[in-house]
Structures are given as C-alpha cells and as structure tokens.
Amino acid sequence: MTALVALTERVVISTTRDRDILFAVLAPVVTYVGFTLVLQNVINTGDMSYAQYVLPAVVVQAMLLGAMTTAERAAKDQRAEFGVRLRTLPIPTVLPLAARMLYCLLRGVLALLAAIATAYVFGFRMQGGLGYGLAFVVVALTLTLALSLAADAVGSLGWQLDSASQLLLVPQLLLVLLSTGMAPAEAFPDWIEPFVRHQPVSVVTETLRGFAGGHADPGNVAATMAWCVGMLLVFGAIAVRLQRRTR
Amino acid sequence: MSHDITSRRSLLVESLLFARSYMVRWRTQPLLPLQSLLLPTLLLVIYHLLVGESLVRITGRDNLAGLVPMCAMAGGMFGALGAGWAIPAERRTGMLSRLWTFPVHRSSPLLGRLISEGVRAVLSTALITAVGIALGLRFAGNWLSVVLYMLVPVAVVVTFAIVVITLALAVGPDGNAMFTWLGTAAVGLAFGSSGAAPMEMLPSWLRPLVQYQPMSPAIETMRALAEGRSAWWPALMTTGWVLVFAAIFIPLAIRNYRTAAETGA
C-alpha cells in the first residue's frame, strides 16, 4: 500500500511541475465560460438555460482532454531505464498503472469541482439532491477512468503522441461539438441528426444532464452505463495486460 | 554600395533556401501540414453544422463570413505551433549552433522559417476558403480584395510565428507546457473572436474585449473584403496589432536565437 502512495505522490508531484494539474482545473473553466458566453444567445435550448444545458458537455470534454495527457506519462514510465527499475522492485506489476489511474481520478475530481463551481456562478444548479448528485459524479469519474485506461494503454505501447496529440483533437472535436451536449438534435442539419442523437458523447451528456436536473431515463442511463463500463472493462484489460510487456 | 546590394540579394536567396528546406520537411513529416489544414477545415465544417441553422433562424444569415477567416487563422496558428515544436530539439541536437557557424546571414534561418510559415498560411487559407465557398460563403468584392483577403492571415500567422519562435527558443529541452499554454491561448483568441458568433449575440460587457483583441480586427478586415465593403478601419487596427507584436517580439526572437545558438542545449 505504501508503494502505491509513494508512486501516486510521484505522479502528482510531476504534474505540479509540468502544470498538468493546473491545466486540469483551468481547461473546464475556460471551455465552460467560452461556450456559455459565445453560444448562450445562439443555441435555443427551450426552457432550460444554456448554462444549465452545456455543463455535461464541458465535463465530458475535460475528461477527454485530461485522458490524453495520461498517454505521455505512461510512455515516460515505460521509457528508458525507469520502467526496468520499476519492474525490479518487489511490488505488483500493475502498481505504477494503479498510481497513474489514482492520479487520473484525482484530476477528474478537480476538473469536476472546477466545472461545477464555475457553472454555479453562471446559474447552473444541481436540482436533484444528493442521490442524483452522487450519480453525476460516479458517471463522470467512471468515464474518466475508462478513457484514461485507454490512453494509458496507448502510451504503454510506446506510441509517440507528442506531435500527434493535436490530431487526436479531431475525433474529440467531432464527438463533443456534434453532440446533443452542445445543442438539441433539432439544431443540426437533418442528415447528421441520427449520428448526433446516438453517438456516445450525446448519450452520456444526456444522462448527466438528467442527473443534474433530478431525473433519469432508464434506457438512456443503461446505454451510458454500457458505454462507460464496457470501455472500462475492455481498456482496463488491455492496459493491465500491457504492463507485463518486457522489452 | 554595390556590396550592399549583393549582400541584400544573398540574404533573400539564403532565406528562400532555408524556407525551402522547411517546406521539404513537410513532405517527410506530413503531420504538420495536415494539422494546419485538416484541423481548421474540420473545425469550420463542424462548427458550421453546430451553429449554422441556429444563426439563420435568429439573424437570417449564417456567420460564414466571420467563421471562415477565424478558421483560416486558427489553422495557420496551429501550424506555427507545430513547426515551433521542432525548435527545442534543433537546439538540443546542435542544429541551431551549426546554422550559426554557416557562412550565411545570421538572420536567414529565422527569415526562412517565417517565409515558410507565410507560404503555408496562404495555402491553408485557400483551402479553407474553398471549403467555406462550398458551404455557402460568397465574395462580393473584386480580385484585388480577394488578394488582400488571402494576405491578412499571412500577416497574422507570421506575427504569431514570431511569438512562438521567441518562446520556443527560450524554453529548455522540454517545452510541452509552454506549447500547451500557447495552444490554449491560440484557441482562446480564435474562439473568443467575432468569428465564433456575431458581435451582437455576445453579452454587452464582453463586446469591447472581443472587438479589440488581436484576432477580431483581422477577421473583420476579411469579412469586409469578402462582402465588398470598405476595410480601412479594421485593417488599420490589424496593422497596429501586428506592429505592436513585431516591435516587442522581433528583438526578443533575435536575442533568444543568439543565446540558443551560442549556448546550445
């Protein structure tokens, strides 16, 4: 257990140095303020204010952005002699991975707190009480963990992401901007509506918005859980497996 | 006197040679031009899909005249960041120091870099404008205004490149954080401009800030040129911003280049 604490502490310290942890807090604040100010008078969200409407999309966006930085840390841990050194220590092989994931959860919590605190200033409210609030947090953190495991697996494979990380923004932009997290499906052109309605970011943001408003559509929640838990299991299995690789 | 002229000519030739070497590099590393072409083009299409119909419903027109310039310049800025990414490595491997000892004008590698940025900005603006025309953008001006339209992003992107180069020369071997911040600043400037939404849709307290930040005058210049209106006022403001940044960052870039080249890693 102490090894896990020490390794986690190491990750946290390294991210205060490269300011990733600061970025984790600032990114959702900036995107939330940006989206709200620019789009609140453009997108018609009916009775709901845009400040209330858009928060889940910002949360998902922050989780996607945060996960991407995990790949680099995983690659650094594998690279050079440090990975070899870690493997000679009398600790379980998955412990460095567990430490990185604990950091990702911490990062996720900070991002979530920053996003919600900012949103409260703009009029967002958690209307469902403690139970729904907790469900909101659990879904967001499960998503973070699943995405971080995927990114960790990519980094552990040794893929160099630095100059490609801008290209990784492409699927992310597609998924976040063309989702019902940004605007109701009717606001999009007809031909793209089916994609917008059914893609995972739309499904997850709808669940989160429901939880924030104090209601849940069983079918939608089931779909969200299927995505989150499914990704968690698949990417988790791959990431754990990759920790055993020796070169 | 004649010496002066040949010297100036050789500076141009050398700078063009360096520019060419940077552009040849894009062929071997196609990721960079892809970044500065694909990303903004996609951003244009995606963002237009997101807000286009809503804007037409509210204001009667889409904001393509502002959105296309915004994406063109954002693309050029992403490209400048991608190109600047190589600088810390060039310093580490001794490339900068080696260029410093070449029998060429010492400013020519820097100038060559800026020329290559300008060329890429023209190409990406042409592509993004073509996509914009496919989406429904129309030009009301004459050919001269089209030429000027293409030159505005060049000025903005080259200025931004000077900032990127200055900072990239000053960071140590690991410039990740600096590039993340610069990238965020670029996205923020682009998105918080009059290209993202028409000015009258923004909260009133925010309008002056958006209106006078460096990107908006450039976007408004291009909007005016595309719509065939007089572009004097925003063009003047754009020039002002370019001059301010140039006055601050060109001396810094030269100083940092000297330090980086003379001290190496």
Question: Care to describe what's here?
Answer:
The complex is a heterodimer of chains A (247) and B (265). Chain A has 247 residues and is mainly α. Chain A has one domain. Chain A has ten helices and no strands. In chain A, helix 2 runs parallel beside helix 5. The mean pLDDT of chain A is 88. Chain B has 265 residues and is mainly alpha-helical. Chain B has one domain. In chain B, helix 3 packs parallel to helix 7 and helix 7 packs antiparallel against helix 10. The longest helix of chain B has 32 residues. The radius of gyration of chain B is 19 Å and the shape is globular. Chain B starts with a helix and ends with a helix. At the A-B interface, helix 2 and helix 7 of A face helix 2, helix 3 and helix 8 of B.
Question: What would the principal axes of the Cα set say about the shape of chain A?
Answer: elongated
Let me know the average pLDDT of chain A.
88
**Structural class of the helices, strands and pairings of chain A?**
mainly alpha
Total strand segments of chain A: 0
